[in-house]
Amino acid sequence: MQVEMQGLTKHFGATKAVNDFSITLYDGELVCLLGPSGCGKSTVLNMLAGILPVTKGKILFDGEDVTKHPPEQRGIGLVFQNYALYPHMTVMGNICFPLEIQNVPKAERIRRATEMAELVHMGDYLDRRPKQLSGGQQQRVAIARALVKNPRLLLLDEPLSNLDARLRLEMREEIRRIQLQTQVTTVFVTHDQEEAMSISDHIALMKDGYLQQHEKPQALYDEPANQFVADFLGNPPINNLEGTAQGDRFVSNDGSSFVCRGIEVVPSGTKINLAIRAESFVMENEKADSFMKCKIISVYQLGKEEMAQVEFGGNIFRAYISLENNIKAGDEVYLSLKDRGVFFFDKESGRRYI
Ligand code: ATP
Predict the structure, then answer these.
(1) Which of 55, 70, 131, 123 is nearest to 92 (CA)?
(2) pTM of the model as a whole
(3) Are residues 227 and 246 in the same domain?
(4) pLDDT tens for residues 203-217?
(5) Is the peptide bond before 36 cis (omega within 30 degrees of 0)?
(6) 39 lines ligand 1 (CB under 6 A)
C-alpha cells in the first residue's frame, strides 16, 4: 500500500512535536523514521496508526483520506519496544488473539497463526508462555501477532531497543527478511543510524519536529542536505574543519590554507565548516598548493588500515590512512582530499553549498 503524509503537524499545547511533515512511502518499502530523542518520530507513527489525532495535515492510504479514521479501520499492525505480549497466554494464544477479536473461525485462526509463527521462526515454541522466551523471541512473537491480520501497513516503534547488541543485529536482519517476504509497507522508528542504514529502502531523518531529508540510505550519507544530516550519519562521525572560504582556498582560523577543489561555490569570506569523511583523505608524497600540510598526533591500527588523529591549522580530525604509509605520531605529512565525502557547510545556518 502507498502511504502519503501531507503537511502532518502535531502540537501538544506549546510543544510543536511535528511540523509540516510530508513524505510518500511506496508500496512494499521499508522506511525508517530516524532522529535523536524527542524529534517527533513516535508522534508521526502514532498519527499514522490513528492513536493520535493530527493538528493539521492529511494521511492518505492508497489515495484514500484516512486522517479521521479510528485505528481499527486502518488495517495496521503495531509493534512496540516492550513487546506487550499477554503473559497468561501461550505463543499460539498471543498470535491468534487479533483473529479471535475479528471472530475468525478457530481452525483458520490456528492455521494462520502457525504459518506466522513459522515465518518468524517460532514454530517450535507455540506452547510456551512469554516469560519462558528470550527478548528476541518475544519480539518475534509480537511481530507475528502484528502480521497475522494481514495489515496494510506495519508500524514498528523502536522494536529492538530492549535487546542486547548482538541480538539487535540479528533481529534487524530478521525484520528485514520478514518484511521482504511479506512485502508489507513498513515504517520503522529508530534513533540508531546504523540500524536505519542497514535495513531501509528510504530514511526520513528528523530534528526538532522537522523533516531534514528523505532519501535512500547511501544518498543520505553521500549527499547530506545540511550540517545536521552530515553529522548524524557515519561512524566515525564526519570531521568538521573550521575556517573561511577565500576564493579557491580554505583558510583555517590560524591562517593555514590550501587550494580546495569546489570551494569557489562559497562566497569569499564566508565562515564555513569544511566537512570531510574519515575515508576521504589521500596520503601524498610531496608538497603542493592543493595538499594540506598536517601533523600526525596519534595512530592506531584497524585491520588493514590505520586510523590517525591529525592536525591541520588548529583543527583536529580523524583520517583512515593505509598501513603501507608507515606513519607515526609526530610525522608531518601532506594529505589531499577525494571528491567524495567532502562538503561545505555555512557555519551559522548549517546549509550546504553545492
Ligand atoms: P524518542 O526517541 O525519545 O521516543 P521521539 O523522536 O519518538 O523520541 P516523540 O515521542 O514523538 O519523539 O516526542 C516529540 C516531542 O513531543 C517531544 O518533545 C515530547 O516531549 C513531546 N510529546 C510527545 N507526546 C506528548 C504528549 N502526549 N503530550 C505532550 N508532549 C508530548
Answers:
(1) 123
(2) 0.92
(3) no
(4) 999 999 999 999 999
(5) no
(6) yes
CA of 209 to the centre of ligand 1 (A): 9
Query: What range does the domain containing 214 cover?
Result: 3-232
- Which CATH number is 257's domain given? 2.40.50.140
Using CA atoms, how far residue 147 sits from 56, 119, 186, 235, in Å, is 30, 10, 11, 34
Say yes or no: 30 and 160 in one domain.
Answer: yes
Q: Which strand ranges, in their side-by-side order, compose the sheet holding 3-12?
A: 15-25, 3-12, 56-61, 64-65
Report how far ligand 1's centroid is from the alpha carbon of 208 (Å): 10
Q: Tell me the CA end-to-end span of the chain in Å, nearest whole number.
A: 35
The per-residue pLDDT for range 287-336, each reduced to its tens digit, is: 999 999 999 999 988 777 789 999 999 999 999 988 788 889 999 999 99
Domain shared by 149 and 245, yes or no:
no
Distances (CA, A) of 43 to 10, 99, 117: 8, 27, 30
C-alpha 161 to ligand 1 mean position (Å)? 17
Q: Nearest residue CA, atom 22 of ligand 1?
A: 17
With a pLDDT cut of 90, the percent of the chain lying above it is 84
